[in-house]
Structure formats: structure tokens, C-alpha cells
């Protein structure tokens, strides 16, 4: 069993897509074992995305991720990290295939609706970031 961190981003919360996104995760057979709604401060968003410091989109990413409420969740299942990455589609919604969450619900970066950890190491760090108790 593997665990991964998923975030429903501020654009999706504003657009009332929470229910439909959770439905897709559960339909796939994955289990949500922890979940919370919160608003990241600017400093928290900077810390969460620190691996992107220096990239040209960093400022707009931090602004976006601290612009409204998000839903953070821990998702568990067989190969959960790669299964969720397939389910959400490519980072750029323009490149994401129809049928994926980003392909179906997002139009342009950085507003790509959902985040999921990209490796075991980032899953561990990101789960700790939001759910110290796990
Ligand atoms: P995420 O999977 O959360 O990882 C980093 C985020 O940065 C990504 O989703 C997008 O929201 C954003 N991002 C990545 N590349 C770009 C880009 N070229 N322009 C704007 N935003 C980007």
C-alpha cells in the first residue's frame, strides 16, 4: 500500500469542483484516509513549492496557491502515487488528455485544478507538511 498527497487547488474550490474530483479518486478504487480544507499563507505556499524557487512561474504559482481555500488529502492504495498521476494528467492542462482530471476541468497554467506528489520522497515530505499526525 502506498500513500500520496493530493491537493484540490484554489481554482477548483472556487469553481465548486471538489465533489466531482473526489468522486473520480474514489471511483478509481483509491481511499481517502485524511482530508482538510485550509488556506495557505504566502509563506506556507513558498515553503511547499520551494523546489521551484528561481523558476519563472514561481511567483505566480505562490500567488495562486495562497489565493483561496484548498482541500488537502492523503490518498492510499496500490501504487497510489503513479495511479493518481495518471488520473490527473499532464501538468499543463493544454497537454493533458481528455478523460484526465486536468484534461477535463482545466484550461491553462498555473490553474491546473489538482496537485499530486510525484515520488515516494515528495509524498513523504508533502504528507508531513499537511498531516503531521500521520
Ligand atoms: P503542481 O503539480 O502543483 O506542481 C507545480 C505547479 O506549478 C504546477 O502544478 C502548476 O500549477 C505550476 N506550474 C508548473 N509549470 C508552470 C508553468 N510553466 N507556468 C505556470 N505555472 C506552472
UniProtKB/TrEMBL annotation:
Residue numbers binding ATP: 9, 57, 85, 91, 102, 112
Keyword annotations from UniProtKB, A to Z: ATP-binding, Cytoplasm, Kinase, Magnesium, Metal-binding, Nucleotide metabolism, Nucleotide-binding, Phosphoprotein, Transferase
Keyword Magnesium appears in the UniProt entry: yes
Protein family per UniProt: Belongs to the NDK family.
EC number from the UniProt entry: 2.7.4.6
CDD domains: NDPk_I (cd04413)
Catalytic activity: a 2'-deoxyribonucleoside 5'-diphosphate + ATP = a 2'-deoxyribonucleoside 5'-triphosphate + ADP; a ribonucleoside 5'-diphosphate + ATP = a ribonucleoside 5'-triphosphate + ADP
EC primary class: transferase
PROSITE patterns per the UniProt record, alphabetical: NDPK, NDPK_LIKE
Stated role: Major role in the synthesis of nucleoside triphosphates other than ATP. The ATP gamma phosphate is transferred to the NDP beta phosphate via a ping-pong mechanism, using a phosphorylated active-site intermediate.
Cell compartment(s), UniProt: Cytoplasm
Biological processes, Gene Ontology terms: CTP biosynthetic process; GTP biosynthetic process; UTP biosynthetic process
Single GO cellular component term: cytoplasm
Domain Nucleoside diphosphate kinase-like positions: 1-134
Cofactor names: Mg(2+)
Alphabetized GO MF terms: ATP binding; metal ion binding; nucleoside diphosphate kinase activity
Listed name of the protein: Nucleoside diphosphate kinase
List of catalytic residues: 115
Amino acid at each position: 500500500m502506498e500513500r500520496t498527497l493530493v491537493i484540490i487547488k484554489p481554482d477548483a474550490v472556487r469553481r465548486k469542483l471538489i465533489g466531482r474530483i473526489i468522486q473520480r479518486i474514489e471511483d478509481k478504487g483509491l481511499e481517502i484516509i485524511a482530508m482538510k480544507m485550509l488556506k495557505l499563507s504566502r509563506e506556507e505556499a513558498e515553503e511547499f513549492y520551494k523546489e521551484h524557487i528561481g523558476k519563472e512561474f514561481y511567483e505566480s504559482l505562490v500567488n495562486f496557491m495562497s489565493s483561496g481555500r484548498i482541500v488537502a488529502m492523503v490518498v492510499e492504495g496500490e501504487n497510489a502515487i503513479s495511479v493518481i498521476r495518471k488520473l490527473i494528467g499532464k501538468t499543463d492542462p493544454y497537454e493533458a488528455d481528455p478523460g484526465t482530471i486536468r484534461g477535463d476541468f482545466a484550461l491553462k497554467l498555473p490553474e491546473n485544478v489538482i496537485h499530486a506528489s510525484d515520488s515516494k520522497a515528495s509524498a513523504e515530505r508533502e504528507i508531513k507538511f499537511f498531516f503531521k499526525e500521520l
